[in-house]
Specification:
Shape of chain A: globular
Distance between the termini of chain A: 30 Å
Number of helices of chain B: 13
Radius of gyration of chain A: 20 Å
Structural class of chain B: mainly alpha
Bound molecules: adenosine-5'-triphosphate, magnesium ion
CATH superfamily of the largest domain in chain B: MetI-like
Strand content of chain A: 15-25%
CATH topology of the largest domain in chain B: MetI-like fold
Largest sheet of chain A: 8 strands, mixed
Helix content of chain B: over 70%
Distance between the termini of chain B: 21 Å
Oligomer: heterodimer
Number of domains of chain B: 2
Largest interface: A-B, 33 and 26 residues
Radius of gyration of chain B: 27 Å
Structural class of chain A: alpha/beta
């Protein structure tokens, strides 16, 4: 992993205007993504993972606004641009050629009346890639994701199975050689064997083509396998961020610890499985102090009054918890 | 598979009798065509039979109606009856099954017979004279309102919630609720009587009298002038439905994943609008369009009568009023054939536009 950050996200906040009020879906999120790095984004449903991903490429729904922050992207030539300041035409050209996305549960992500080849050509011509090159590259990528290239290239989406479509989308996300691919639960809609083969293919492609990935997953085992770094999100904030082994084996945030204890494959044993009491907070009127304190067994008065900041505890391991040392001690105990 | 007859040892036995896919496709298409045509013929026959008996269930027959008319001029019943009987080549006392068989027999020879109330005039000639005007006026009305509805509906979906959308939605809903003959009457009363935009009397017929048909500016201008009111009526009466359907269909399409993905792929707005949004949003409208094309032929009976436009609808109304059975049968036949044909057209168009229901789509392995 090179040290150059290809993406620097700084203090990004995103909110939705809903009928009940303003939903703070992402608040004050900052992180770096390095060249070739795979960052796993984990957290409960509704904590803002998809919102953050869509915000990074400004593809949020119309009722969402990015309230503040900057998203600094480093082009291949070293030039740094703020994605939030791109004009519409610049943004259009930036999309997919610099950052592409595999959408969550996107079985319907291919236009039913167009052939896969049309999707490839559309994408290529929008970014000035010649047709012949697009075809050559698409066929190559289809073969790499273990599809029958010619057949898939000429197929309509309904002629492909769910797993095949998912692999087509993965291949198309790499068509323009982006530096970053955002993957929002790319394997949730497929069976376990297809998931396995998609992950294998992804790892292989990543090593060959050297792109960075932000990988959203509910499956911690998958995250542990594929990621270099992990960020835990809770109620729109990143509460812990660090190298995968640090976060998964020496968690310092009470929420990460609870998540790990709730996950079957990484915890010590079946008897240890514990669900997290309570439910995620209301994002319209979040609780004061640390947003996790109502569900946290380490909570103290300090947690109720003051929101902890995301600070570095050891090299590259950031955590936003007043009692991170206690949590670390407990997690050592559990895992011992 | 049929059993292979005993082969002489010299002829090699084929490994497997698998026909190439294009042969299979052609056979399938052929079978499909035969099925569709048979279905169509049966439908037309059923409708023809139904209308044959239905129109004879109406009170009175051509002779009765004529007797009534003559008696109103003060002619005594006996004389009126004799006159009327002599006037028409129609015997009201002939049993229905005999009439029906005779009709079917003629139909098989493509003979629609003569008009009962206009002796000597062939039904087919009447249809040939009136059909083009209906095709022209209702057809152009349909195409204009379809094009308008699709364009406006798409635009409203894109800018939904705007003033433009709200105003047009209200107008479209109101138009959708008004029947075409009310619109025709409103045009006549407001435009012709109150505002005096045109002379109602001058707009009767399909062209100004005394203009020789031909590709002259004068003739075309006159045709357009006379068609203006009926066409406006058809457009106003149907555009509301197209607008509302297209708007809701477009809104549904805009919410599809593949639109979000197309945007994220950085496609230009234009390409997304045409190949991704409009094309998918129009799918449900195409069936409706094709079916409406079938009803073009029937025209709009009351609207043509109101504007005295010489189309098939007006002559149908006249045939009904004088119980001109043969003319009515001829017109209903044309209508049912065109409805059946346009339904086939709808299937074909859907298959062409939507690969998911395309015929013989699969040589999936
Ligand atoms: N279009 C929207 N309008 C209003 N609120 C929204 C909208 N989309 C998402 N939200 C809210 O924003 C919050 C974050 O949603 P998001 O989809 O980012 O969650 P997520 O972490 O991706 O969840 P999941 O794991 O279920 O995909 C949720 O509380 C959700 O209710
Ligand atoms: Mg999500």
């Amino acid at each position: 992993m090179a040290e150059r950050p290809v993406l620097q996200v700084r203090n990004v906040s995103i909110s939705y205007l809903a009928r009940r009020g303003r939903v703070r879906a992402v608040s004050d999120v900052s992180f770096d993504l390095h060249e070739g790095e795979t960052l796993a984004l984990i957290g409960e449903s509704g904590c803002g993972k998809s919102t953050l991903n869509l915000g990074l490429i400004r593809q949020l729904p119309a009722n969402a606004t990015i309230d503040s922050g900057s998203i600094l992207y480093t082009r291949r030539d070293g030039q740094i641009v703020d994605v939030l300041k791109l004009r519409p035409q610049e943004l259009r050209r930036f999309l997919w050629s610099e950052v592409s996305m595999v959408f969550q549960g996107a079985l319907n992500a291919l236009n039913p009346v167009l052939r896969v080849s049309d999707v490839v050509y559309d994408t290529a011509s929008a970014h000035g890639m010649p047709r012949a090159e697009a075809k050559r590259r698409a066929l190559d990528l289809f073969a790499r994701v273990r599809l029958d290239p010619e057949r898939v290239f000429n197929a309509y989406p309904h002629e492909l199975s769910g797993g095949m479509r998912q692999r087509v989308l993965l291949a198309i996300s790499l068509l323009l050689r982006p530096q970053i691919v955002l993957m929002d639960e790319p394997t949730t809609a497929v069976d376990i064997l297809t998931q396995r083969s998609i992950l294998d293919v992804l790892e292989k492609l990543r090593d060959e083509l050297n792109f960075s990935v932000i990988f959203v997953s509910h499956d911690l085992a998958v995250a542990a396998e594929i990621a270099d770094t992990v960020a835990t999100m809770y109620a729109g904030k990143i509460v812990e961020h660090g190298p995968v082994n640090d976060v998964f084996y020496r968690p310092r945030h009470a929420y990460t610890l609870s998540l790990l204890n709730a996950a079957p494959r990484l915890s010590a044993g079946a008897e240890e499985l514990a669900s997290i009491p309570g439910s995620p907070p209301d994002l319209i009127q979040p609780p004061p102090g640390c947003k996790f304190h109502p569900r946290c067994r380490f909570a103290s008065d300090l947690c109720r009054d003051k929101e902890p900041e995301l600070v570095s505890k050891e090299a590259g391991h950031l955590v936003a918890c007043h009692h991170s040392d206690e949590v670390l001690a407990t997690s050592r105990e559990v895992r011992a | 598979m049929s059993t292979v007859p005993a082969q002489s040892p010299t002829t090699p036995v084929p490994m497997a009798v698998i026909k190439p896919w294009h042969t299979r496709l052609r056979e399938r298409l052929f079978g499909y065509a035969i099925r569709v045509i048979l279905q169509g013929l049966i439908t037309v026959w059923a409708v023809t039979t139904f209308t044959f008996f239905l129109i004879r269930l109406m009170p009175g027959n051509p002779v009765d109606i004529k007797i009534d008319q003559l008696m109103q001029q003060g002619i005594p019943y006996e004389i009126a009856r004799n006159q009327a009987m002599g006037l028409f080549a129609f015997n009201p006392d002939e049993p229905l099954p005999v009439q029906y068989l005779a009709y079917l027999g003629n139909l098989l020879r493509f003979d629609l017979g003569n008009s009962i109330t206009n002796p000597g005039v062939r039904v087919i000639d009447q249809i040939a004279a009136f059909l083009p005007w209906t095709l022209f006026s209702v057809g152009s009305g349909l195409l204009i309102s379809f094009a308008l509805g699709v364009t406006l509906g798409t635009a409203m979906a894109y800018w939904r919630g705007s003033v433009f959308d709200n105003v047009l939605t209200a107008i479209a809903s109101i138009l959708y609720g008004i029947p075409d003959y009310i619109i025709a009457l409103l045009l006549l009363i407001v435009g012709g009587v109150q505002l005096r935009l045109f002379q109602i009397g001058e707009l009767r017929g399909a062209v100004d009298p005394g203009i020789a048909p031909g590709l002259t500016l004068e003739y075309i201008g006159s045709v357009l002038k006379h068609a203006l009111l009926p066409v406006s009526t058809y457009v106003l009466a149907s555009v509301g439905g197209w607008i509302l359907t297209m708007k809701s269909s477009t809104i549904a399409t805009l919410g599809e994943d593949y639109i979000a993905v197309a945007k994220a792929r950085g496609l230009p707005e234009r390409r997304i609008l045409t190949a991704y949004v409009a094309r998918n949003a129009m799918l449900p409208l195409v069936t409706r369009l094709a079916i409406s094309i079938g009803f073009v032929v029937g025209g709009s009976v009351i609207v043509e009568e109101l504007f005295q436009y010489p189309g098939l609808g007006r002559s149908l109304l006249r045939a009904i009023n004088s119980r001109d059975y043969t003319t009515m049968q001829g017109i209903f036949l044309v209508i049912s054939i065109s409805v059946v044909v346009s339904n086939m057209l709808a299937d074909l168009m859907m298959g062409w536009l939507d690969p998911r229901i395309r015929l013989g789509k699969g040589h999936r392995d």
